[in-house]
Amino acid sequence: MSPYAVLAAFFFAALLLLLAPFVGSKLLSPKKPNPIKNSVYECGVETVGETWVQFKIQYYIYALVFVIFDVETVFLYPWAVAYNQLGFFALVEMGIFLVILLAGLFYAWRKGALEWF
């Protein structure tokens, strides 16, 4: 069997595993639409007034900045644990990493992304 045939078989299997749940749910799901099933449902309480509410994008940006710095901690912790085994090159790399993150933090701060009100 040629390497391209193996690659094609893996591609076909991946495509099949991707599409099988969609096709299966489309074929097996019951189709009985009615106004109650199509109504908007919000935590067990019927909505009053306009369903679409404008959401302040500032909260999303604040959460995104938090996630970025949370992921930074995930990268920083193993480096700090293995610091004694690492050389000077790892110290320089971590310094560059922290400078890039601090630049992002100052940029977000200057743009007002960290203000919560």
Structure description:
With 117 residues, the protein is mostly helical. The chain is 64% helix and 0% strand. The protein has 3 helices and no strands. Helix 2 (57-81) runs antiparallel to helix 3 (88-111). The longest helix is centred in the first third of the chain and has 26 residues, at 3-28. The chain is flat and about 65 Å long.
Residue windows where pLDDT falls under 50 for at least 5 positions: none
Question: What is the tally of helical segments?
Answer: 3
Query: In which range does the helix fraction lie?
Result: 55-70%
The rough form would be described as flat
Number of DSSP E strands: 0
Query: How much strand content do the residues show?
Result: under 5%
Radius of gyration: 25 Å
Q: How far apart are the first and last residues' alpha carbons, in Å? A: 63 Å
Class derived from helix and strand content: mainly alpha
Report the major sheet. none
Order of helices and strands: HHH
* Average predicted local confidence, pLDDT: 84
Looking at this protein, list some descriptive labels.
117 residues; single chain; flat; mainly alpha
Write a brief structural summary.
The protein is mainly alpha-helical and 117 residues long.
What's the layout of helices and strands?
Layout: H1 3-28, H2 57-81, H3 88-111
Helix pairs in contact: 2-3
